């Protein structure tokens, strides 16, 4: 079952995107996402695009394991409305927290978002609460009618659902355990400690996007793959500033620049991996089967594979240009984020920044605020 995620913009948009676009370890989920400034726009988009179901998420909502969350939603029993349902004791009205809610698009109308007063069957609630005394497992319509002005989010949706003689269910504790919310605009990065540790110690042997030869004198670039190597060996480039969040990638680039002769890349990479006891390294070939990846644990197969891939990407005289560059050109290394480096830089005059895919990378989304992104773009201008 496929359905889109509609995210409402807010201060923590990037952090929410990071946890929907990528799984726990940073692999893209391919989830369809629509970003909007208000819920009505998101609802109308889903309706006009023929979607039956849609999950609405407010910026600041963090999903800890998106693939698992999606699977559970597809199995979740409901009648068209799941939400953080709130009904406080000694009150007659209930409402929804808009952190995260799922609806059957065809069961609701735009008017449900704008209603200033609502009339619907008197609701009754489950005796049990998920926590405290204001989070019923469900509510359903009963006899009698209630009418009131709207004071909280979702009361128009609730009215429509109960008027259609359908119950409303709350998110159960299994789903709640997979979610959190950024309160006070500060993300708890401890939630992503294992991912951050991996990303900050990752080795990218090749690039996972096309390599571009910039042909400018002074470049700023991440250290992943072969891009920086092919650029520093180009006659037009005289100086590189390699900026990367992975301390392992920086160490690898330094080792190549200081001691490699430009030949037998596979053996150099293998030795670096073994000497540094690396666990997180990537050859960047999505077509490899699990068996082929397992076979690359063998030294000979690994070296042959890396050299074969490397030799397809370089010119025959690469080693000569590499050794010449080592004698005549300059590279500086920085273990930090490219965005922070650009914002803070006051001394380096560069001609071009190769951004690679850092703006579509889980680590960047988790660690970057919209304000920093704006600062970055302004600095480039």
How much helicity do the residues have? 25-40%
**Secondary structure tally, helices:** 16
- Going by helix content, strand content and strand pairing, the class is alpha/beta
Termini separation (Å)? 44 Å
Question: Main β-sheet, in a few words?
Answer: 8 strands, mixed
Count of domain modules: 2
* Average pLDDT: 94
Question: How large is the share of residues in beta strands?
Answer: 15-25%
Please state how the strands of the largest beta sheet are arranged side by side. 2-1-3-6-5-9-8-7
Rough shape?
Answer: elongated
Low-pLDDT windows of residues: none
Strand tally, please?
16
The Rg value, from CA coordinates, equals: 26 Å
Walk me through what this model shows:
- The structure is a single chain.
- Helices cover 37% and strands 21% of the residues.
- By secondary structure, the chain is α/β, with parallel strands linked by helices.
- It has two domains: 5-185; 195-380, no CATH class.
- Strands 2-1-3-6-5-9-8-7 form an eight-stranded mixed beta sheet, with helices on both faces. Strands 15-13-12-16 form a four-stranded parallel beta sheet. Strands 4-10 form a two-stranded antiparallel sheet.
- Helix 8 links the parallel strand 12 (218-221) and strand 13 (239-243).
- Helix 10 crosses helix 12 and helix 14 crosses helix 16 (370-380).
- The two termini are 44 Å apart.
